Amino acid sequence: MDGVRRAGRALWRVARHEWTLVVLASLPLAAALTWPTLRDPAGTLPQDTGDPTLQAWQVAWGGHALRTDPAHLWHSNTFFPEPYTYAYSDTLLGFAPFALIGEGPVAAVVRYNLLYVLVHALAFVGAYALSRQLGAGRAGAAVAGASFAYAPWKLAQAGHLHVLSIGGVALALAMLARGHGWSLRHGYRPDRVRPGWAGAGWAVAAWQVTLGFGIGLPFAYVLGLLGLAVAGAYGVTWWRRRSRPAVSRGLLLADLAGVTGFAGVSLLMAAPYLEVVARHPAGRRTAAQVAMFSPPARGFLTAPPESWLWGERHGAARAALGFPGEMTLLPGVVLIALAVAGLVFSAWRVWQRVALAAGVLVSLALAAGTSFGGDGDPGYLTLMRRLPGWDALRTPGRLVLWTTLLLGVLAAGALTVREPPPAGAGRGDWRRWARVALALPALLVLAEGVNRTPHVPVPAQPVALRGVAGPVLVLPLGGIRDYHVMLWSTDGFPSTVNGLASFTPDSQQRIRAAGTGFPDAGSVAYLRAAGVRTVVLLPGYATGTPWQGAAARPVEGLGIHRERVGDAVVYHLDRAS
């Protein structure tokens, strides 16, 4: 009986622990602030049916490959007959374990919507944990977490799960700081060193990289800079004291293993992308592409139309932007005001505030792309020319995540200042009113994150594509419909010519050109030679394309079999009529 009581008390302590409460609170908060995502998770997608259908396929393919043939992970079923097609865009590979449960397009959509909600919760928890580790109070950490998870600029990225998946960045930094016994308020404390937390931090950082290099590559460079700063601090200590700082053997081993693992994962992830660029030079990003997506200064004060609070009010400002989807980068009016206040009064030391402010300015300059510095040095293009891998990033505005995180830390410092109770007031009354007052900033930040994101119906899978035999070509070929074909291909993952990326492989261009007159002798012969065995024509989507009216074209003498399946026409190239 005593053992049961002890177990019950232990469970109660865990249940009421701060971190348990934060995690549990983050889930309904995420469900509410992404609503109505969970109202119909099998039938709708947030924002549009473009990138979300692609990313639903990406997660599903990762799980399928791990379950069936991990050796061919990077050679996906799309863009047949090209290899390394899984590396044509950020893969979200780190979410592949979620795809080990469920199969087919419906499961892929449900999975995407659940992840869409969960990544917001993780961003809140990660930034909250980082701020607490740095020394912020609960109210300040709540503001940092709320702003990092629900900043207005993130509403424009509702269709980009890989951009929203930033929680691992803050969480890894929090774990690494905890493992190294370091905080902003107290500095380095050897008695607080926890090698296990350091190792866990490196593991989370490696996982973050597997979600995509658009976020992961800058994160890797930030970790490198932090590592140099720590090494420099140790060097200064040694120079002044002529003695080495006390560092535990366990921490050194954890860092060695962590850095090795992080570097190994990064290199393994980078290898297929380098292969893709070598095979398809058109896939390399250019300065002109960066310039197209580079936001002007006013973009950082402009909210996307999905913002409930600022969307309509900022309509005129958005109209002046060249590419609003990547240029509406408002971190939050309340957040900016709190961060400015944090420069004046804060729990952080003056030099720390200056360093954080400098980080904000540097991140803003980089997020502005060519709008700051143009083609000269220093500037964003300097990194493209000199840092390995940086030329793969064409949307500099997404670096505003670092601006948001640093502003959150500044704001957290302002809300961590502890004032003495007023004369004549009871200590309990003061604390009660202080909690109420300090909760208000977090609520205001969350109010700026309320969304008006449209949730659109998922394109229904044609009956003809259920269990279709590959290699298959779905017509019409090209455009956003190829994203839908990729999603539909999660039903068995047949090899599919269709696919859409930032560049078009030569093989797909040739198939598109040769198949324009399908079905005719030339196109049938070319497709057979390319290995295509089935062609599915979707007449309802062919209006205005070269395949408009293709369903009525004769097939006699072509040596193929044609049949009507639902609203589609299926051509079997390996069977005669």
Number of E-type strands: 8
Bin the strand percentage: under 5%
Query: How would a textbook summarize the main sheet?
Result: 4 strands, mixed
Structural class from helices and strands? mainly alpha
Strand order of the largest sheet: 5-6-8-7
| Overall form | elongated
Q: Encode the helix/strand succession as letters.
A: HHEHHHHHEEHHHHHHHHHHHEEHHHEEE
- Gyration radius, in Å: 27 Å
Taking pLDDT < 50 over at least 5 consecutive residues as the criterion, the unreliable ranges are none
Portion of residues within helices? 40-55%
Q: End-to-end span in angstroms?
A: 79 Å
Number of helices: 21
Mean pLDDT: 90
Keywords: Membrane, Transmembrane, Transmembrane helix
Transmembrane segments: 21-38, 110-129, 159-177, 197-215, 221-239, 251-274, 329-348, 355-374, 399-417
Protein name: 4-amino-4-deoxy-L-arabinose transferase
Question: What can be said about this structure in brief?
Answer:
By secondary structure, this protein is mainly α. It has 21 helices and eight strands. It comes from Micromonospora purpureochromogenes.
